[in-house]
Amino acid sequence: MAQTKQRINLYRPVLISRRLAASNRSWVMGAAVVLTMALASVLMWDVKQRWDVIKEISAQKAERDRLYGQLTKLSDQLASLTRGASAQATTASAELLPLISQRTKWIDLFQDVSVRVPDGVWLVRMDVKTLDIPQGRGRTMIAKKKIITLAGFAQSYARVGQLLLALEQSPEFSAVLLKSAERNAADTSERVDFEIAGELS
Q: Between 148 and 102, whose confidence is greater?
């Protein structure tokens, strides 16, 4: 009868356990290396992210400082322009106020005359002249007076008289004088041509 072969382990048990321990240790070391690399990459990513944020904040600060400088410059220019415009506006208002007051005076005068002209009277011309009138004994002082002349025609002498009385009551005139009033010979109707002068108040 043939004998069965038996396997014999030639390795010593201690050697096997050492090999198992070495393989376990290399596995642990590999896992530790992988874990360390993963942690290092995470840390590097975090550092990069922080560095990018710091760079962005620095860029925003630089842009803010640049815009603040431009704003300060524009503010100074605006203040300078405002001072210049204010001075010009003051000068312009000083020059315009007399003109505006004169314009207002003329509007008031035209309105007053238009209200006082009675029916049957038509004005065809209005002239204004400024006269220099010497005053005082030495005749050194000159008073400027504005004389207005109204010319037109009326249906009758009575209508001219009504206009004369109405203008004498006007606050716009200090003196009213009938310069001429005569019937128009060329016209067959009762038409009276007149000219009235008055001194403006």
A: 148
